[in-house]
Amino acid sequence: MLYENSIQKANLIMSLRSMGISSKDVLNAIETIPRELFLPSNFHSYAYKNNPLPIGFEQTISQPYIVALMTEALNLKGNEIILEIGTGSGYQTSVLSLLSRRVYSIERIKPLLVNALLCFKKLKLTNIVSKHDDGFLGWPKLAPFDHLIITCAIKKIDDRLLNQVRYNGICIAPVATSLNQQRLKKIIVKDKRENDIWEDLGEVSFVPLVSDYD
Ligand code: SAH
After folding, report:
1. Quick check: CB of 85 below 6 Å from ligand 1?
2. Is residue 92 part of a domain?
3. Structural domain contains residue 25
4. Residue 2, in any domain of the structure
5. Cα–Cα dist 144/129, whole Å
């Protein structure tokens, strides 16, 4: 099983490369984090397929390519403080934790967060701070963050979220452009919202952000 996994893992890394992921650090982090740990046991054999998979509560673990793409877009050097909205399984959080100083992560579904915390403990990832909450308004008490990553589809990125990112920090988020279309956006945050620089990273498919504030 272990041997089989390592072949599948190598194939996954090669396909991520062929899809355009070039950062060695990102590819190493994907190779290091055991994705099966974050999945229900009946999906373990699919862990290294490049697909999203169900994690319960109608939520999904992101596709490895999308995790790699979002992580690469942050251009991490290792000393950043990141805010993540939507911990989910904790897989993306774990990849980020290997490449940054600290990750703050918010999840609204408690059992998912409990499971993610168990995974962080097993992997001895000690630079993740999480809370069970509605993350629509971010974590203003701890702002500013170097970067913000949103892993659920948002209708509009509220200025109150972007105001929590430092100058030249990056926000990566799937934005719902219509009922069944989402685009992944990269925003380089400037001094004023009208000076922010928006880039489009392509079409994506995320579970929606659910919030009482929305
Ligand atoms: N990157 C994750 C995928 C997360 S799926 C992974 O690799 O597993 C998106 C997650 O966002 C879900 O767990 C969902 O419960 C959470 N979510 C949705 N709305 C939210 C909100 N308002 N605040 C915090 N988390 C939210």
Report:
1. yes
2. yes
3. no
4. no
5. 15
Is the shortest distance between the CB of 104 and ligand 1 below 6 Å?
no
**Does residue 29 lie in a domain region?**
no
What 3-state DSSP class applies to 151?
coil
Q: What CATH code is carried by the domain that includes residue 97?
A: 3.40.50.150
Q: Span 123-134, mean pLDDT?
A: 98
Q: Is residue 169's pLDDT more than 80?
A: yes
Q: Which atom of ligand 1 is nearest to the CA of 62?
A: 7
Q: How far apart are the first and last CA of the chain?
A: 45
Mean per-residue pLDDT for 19-39? 97
Task: Find the 3 Cα to ligand 1 centroid distance in Å.
Answer: 32
pTM above 0.85, yes or no: yes
Confidence at residue 123, expressed as pLDDT on a 0 to 100 scale: 98
Tell me the residue range of the domain where 79 lies: 65-204
Q: State how many domains the chain has.
A: 1
